[in-house]
Amino acid sequence: ITKNVLDGYNSTIFAYGQTGSGKTFTITGGPDRYEDRGIIPRVISNLFRTMNDASQSGVMYSCYVSYLEIYNSSGYDLLVKEGSINNAAGDERIPKVTMLEDEYGAFHFKGLSMHLVSTEEEALDLLFVGDTNRATASTELNQNSTRSHCIFTIMLEKRQVGVDTV
After folding, report:
1. Pairing of strands 96-101, 115-117
2. Which pLDDT value is given to residue 127?
C-alpha cells in the first residue's frame, strides 16, 4: 500500500470485525511497547523513510493528515488544537464535521482539519492526539472499547523539482 500511495494511487486499509476482535489494536497498536505498534504507525514510518530517501533525488513531498470520528451518525474532528479531551463525541469542544456531496457525487467534509506534517514524529503525535480524543465506553469484552468509527487520512502531494505537475 505504501508503494502504491507513493506511486500516486489512492489506497485504503480497512478493519472490520466483531466487537472485541482487535480492530483498534491492529490498526493503531498497543501503547506500551514499540513492537506492538499497529498498521498506521508502521505505514507512517515507512512513508517518511521513503519520502526522505526520495528527497535526495529531487522529489519533494508534502504530507497532510486528518482524523475523523463518526459516532451516533455525527462526524467529529479528532485533531483538536487545545489538548486532548476524553470521550470526544460527547464533548461539545470537539468540532462537528458536516458531510457534503458536490455536483460530481464526491463527498467532502466541511470543518475537518488537515494538518501539514513534516516528520514521522509530527504525524504520530497527531495520531496519538486523535486516539486520545476518541469516544470510549465499557463493554463486557473491553473496559475501554472505542465506540465509534474513525478515518485517519494521510494525503501526499508529490512534486519533482523543476516540474509543474503535482
Report:
1. unpaired
2. 94
Residue 68 class from Cβ within 10 Å (0-12 exposed, 13-18 middle, 19+ buried)?
A: buried
DSSP assignments along 40-88, one per residue: HHHHHHHHHHHHHHHGGGTEEEEEEEEEEEEETTEEEE---SS---SSG
Residue 24: which of 69, 79, 91, 73 has the closest Cα?
69
The answer to whether the CB of 124 falls within 8 A of the CB of 29 is no
Residue 126 CA to residue 115 CA, distance in Å, equals 9
What amino acid is encoded at 121 in this protein?
E
pLDDT in tens, 47-74: 999 998 887 788 899 999 999 998 888 8
H or E segment to which residue 153 belongs: strand 149-160
9's grid cell: 494511487
pTM: 0.82
Residue 4: is its pLDDT beyond 50?
yes
